[in-house]
Structures are given as C-alpha cells and as structure tokens.
Protein: 3-hydroxybutyryl-CoA dehydrogenase
Amino acid sequence: MSELGPVAVVGAGTMGAGIAQVAAAAGHPVVLVDALTGAAQAALDRMRAALDRRVDQGRISRSEATATTDRIRPADSLADLPECGLVIEAVPEDLGLKQRLLSEVAETQPPTTILATNTSSLDISTVAEAVPDPERVLGLHFFNPPPLMRLVEVVHGETTAEAYLAHAAALMTAWGKTPVRCTSTPGFIVNRVARPFYGEAQRVVEEGLADPATVDWIFRERGGFRMGPFELTDLIGQDVNYAVGASVWEQTGHDPRYAPTEFQRRLVEAGRLGRKTGQGVFSYAAEPGAAVPEPDLGLAERLSSSPIEADPLGRTLAMLVNEAVDLVHRGEASADDVDIAMRLGVNYPKGPIEWGREIGLDLVASHVAALDRAFPGGRYRPSPGLTDGSLDE
Ligand SMILES: NC(=O)c1ccc[n+]([C@@H]2O[C@H](COP(=O)([O-])OP(=O)(O)OC[C@H]3O[C@@H](n4cnc5c(N)ncnc54)[C@H](O)[C@@H]3O)[C@@H](O)[C@H]2O)c1
Structure:
C-alpha cells in the first residue's frame, strides 16, 4: 500500500469527502481539494464531527478516528497536489469540467498515476479523451455514502489498460470495498440493471392494475425487497431517479426498454419529488406512519396468481433477469459481478442471475416473450442470453 504514495480526491462534496475518508482510513496520506475556498477544510471539519459521534457511540476508537482525519490535508487548488499514486475526481457531473480537470491533473502527475472518475453516468472513454495517455483513466464508481457502502464499480473505457484496472480493483479490496468490473455501458451495472424495478411498477400503476401501496407491499412481502419501488423512489427523489433513467434512455439511443414513464414525468413536473418536498407518490405532510395508504391485500393475492402481464412482481423479476442476462450476454460484466453489484449496491435479496436460474431461464424467457406479445414495441425484447445456454449452470 505504501508504494502507492498519496491519494488525491478532487471535489470535497458528498462523494469526495466520503472517498477521502475511506482512503485515509485505509492508511493513505490524502489531499482533499475543492475549488471553492475553504470547502475542503469545511468537509474535513464535518468529517471530524461525524467520526467523533461514532467514537461516542463506541463504534470506532478515538485513535482510529484521529489517525484518519490526521492523514487528510485540505487544499483549495490543484497546484497544491504532490505526486500521487491515484487521483479521484468527484466534481459535479459535467463532462467538460471533468475533462478539463483530468487533463490538468495529467500534465502535473507522473505517467504511472491512476486517474479515476467517480462519474455515475458519463462515458469513461469520452471523459478520457482529453488526457494524452487515456490508458490510465478509469471509473471508480462509489456508492453513497462511501464509508458505508461496500460496492465500487471499476469501469473501463475503450482505452483503459488492464494493468491500471487490476491495480485499482486490488486497491479497492485493500480499502475494504468489494470491486466489480464492467465496461462503460450506460448506467454501468447497478443503474442499468435496476431500471425495470422502477419502470415495471410505474407501468403497472399506469395500466390501472394496482395502486402504489399494494405494489410496494407485494415487493416487500413477496419479493423480499427492503423497500417497494414507490417508497424507495420517494426517498431517493423522483427527480433524481427520473434523471438516471432518462440518461440511460438517451445514451442507448432511446431504447424503448428504458423509456421514462408518463407517471414519473408527471410527478417531477408537479414538483412531487418525494420526502424532500413533503409529497411524492405518497404524502409525508402528516405525522410519521400516516404517510403510506393501506395496501389492498385481497388484490395483492389475486395479482400474484394472475398471468404474467398482470403480476407486478413476476413481471418485474422477469425484466430484471432479462436485463442482467443481457448485460452478461453482451460481455459488459460477468454474471458473478452483476449479482454482487445488485446485492451490495441496491440491497436486492438475491442477485438477478441467481434468481433467474432459480426461476428457470426458460420460464423467464417465456414470461418476457408473453410480455412482448402483450405490449409490443421493443420494451420487452427477450435477451438472446436467456435461451442460448450461455448462462446455464
Ligand atoms: N451523490 C451521489 O449519490 C453520487 C453517487 C455516486 C456518484 N456520484 C457522482 O460523484 C460526483 C460528485 O457528486 P457529489 O454528489 O459529491 O457532488 P457535490 O455537489 O456534493 O460535490 C461536488 C464538489 O466539487 C466541487 N467542485 C466543483 N468544481 C470543482 C473544480 N473545478 N475543482 C475542484 N472542486 C470542484 C464543488 O465545490 C463541490 O464541493 C458526480 O460526478 C456524481 O455524479 C454521486
């Protein structure tokens, strides 16, 4: 670890501060840079206060907390960076900004320095274009909050060299994280494979089959998910969830599989963004517990034994498996990595490939085909990977 040298994190916001804490806790000297004067120092002060609370709760030792924050040096300019083994940028999601920043860093850092971006949606090859030696540019997609979330997607662009990817993945393991590898496909693994979890539920409601509270109940009680799609998107923010879906849809050339729903677009337009605005799918204005309407358990029972088109959970699982299988079929990620990513990144009770094998990939294929017949137009296109035997165990 010591041969890596210092780690620089550029952007001391939500993600950058968390990533700096993870790197420092793993023993690296860290420089945390933010363009806004005093922002890196303020982030470090917040981190100290948060770690103090954890010490008071007996979760970490005082010496551990102090050692972590003592390793972080705040800075207001890239000119303050020493030679680093790894630079991770976590500035806002703006392609031009990230390109300018990485090309500036590349000029001053030695050619062996790994240049990583924490982008959630930009294409790594395009981000790397501005760097003269793009083989050292890769994605390290941490999840929020970085100190608590174990998953890191290690993303390679077309130009990234294997040696840098292997080094970065080994480093994430040494930091106590679980790295998964994927290509720079739109949404990477988690934000791509999760699309049907939200989209199918929204469509079921649009089609008048069930109300949101009943759908959420089915997902929790019958599917084993921690939260249903409607309560979860109210928590994430309907606007944030809509933007992720729309970005995948745009980047796939408007593939109908990812087309945003009218249901969610209307919520966003009406400013019903979820918990943060007091109203989303559900209302949060009343006292706690009064927000979510009662599910219709009789309806839930009837839907669960309905044909696939009218079965919210069966339909969503078929599409989650289809999406996961398709990613593997196209060579974007391994089956194991897809399953790990969905369990750790979004807390699914099972990885979708494992789930698909349990249901039977042939049965999933027949469900997707039935959905395709019921709702033609390409949204329910079955992946060839469901039937070509490549994912059979
Ligand atoms: N928030 C999340 O849940 C999440 C999760 C995964 C990935 N991401 C990605 O991480 C990145 C950062 O997101 P965030 O939520 O931490 O943003 P943020 O707005 O909380 O923080 C961004 C920070 O970058 C600073 N900054 C802006 N321009 C800069 C520059 N030129 N040089 C140095 N610092 C600069 C800002 O002052 C700010 O402190 C984005 O690419 C985002 O897509 C976010």
User: Anything to note?
Assistant: The pocket of nicotinamide-adenine-dinucleotide is lined by residues 10-16, 33-36, 39, 90-93, 97, 101, 118-120, 142, 144 (CB under 6 Å).
